[in-house]
Amino acid sequence: MPSPVDDCPNPNILRSVVEHVFMPPKLPQQGPSEQAEQELNVALCNCLIGAAHDFLKNLPSSSSQSLWMHMITMMELARCAATVPFNESSLRGALSDLAIGGTLI
To answer: Quick one: how far is CA 88 from the chain centroid?
Structure first.
């Protein structure tokens, strides 16, 4: 079975993220297409969720694991938003589900 790390984006995608976040833009430039940006966001969310599940295995107590599962739920909601942007009503529902004890729809 492949590791969640195998689902991480390729080095070219990660490089583009580093360049975008830490380096000033080069002008003139053309930004990525909306589809390319969406694919990048979903790939990064998948990588983050995989790492969060790996971290969960190392938490000592069930109460810590329960709290960490809320973080994973938040990350999964972010991935849903990256896959298909929320409209106003689905965003309200997603945010209310982030409360302690909320559920992922």
So the answer is: 20
Model confidence pTM above 0.85: no
Q: Mention every residue, 6+ apart, whose C-beta is less than 8 A from residue 7.
A: 43, 46, 47, 50
- What are the residue ranges of helices labelled H in 1-105? 11-22, 34-56, 62-83, 88-96
pLDDT of residue 104: 47
72-77 contact pairs (CB < 8 A, 24+): 73/97, 73/98, 73/102, 73/104, 74/98, 75/45, 75/48, 75/49, 76/49, 76/104, 77/104
Closest by CA to 103, choosing from 81, 63, 62, 72, is: 72
Domain ranges of the chain: 8-96
Residue 86 confidence (pLDDT) above 90: no
Give the pLDDT of residue 101.
56
The residue-averaged pLDDT of 83-93 equals 79
Task: Reply yes or no on whether the pLDDT at 92 is more than 80.
Answer: no
Structure-token match 């689902």, residue found:
7
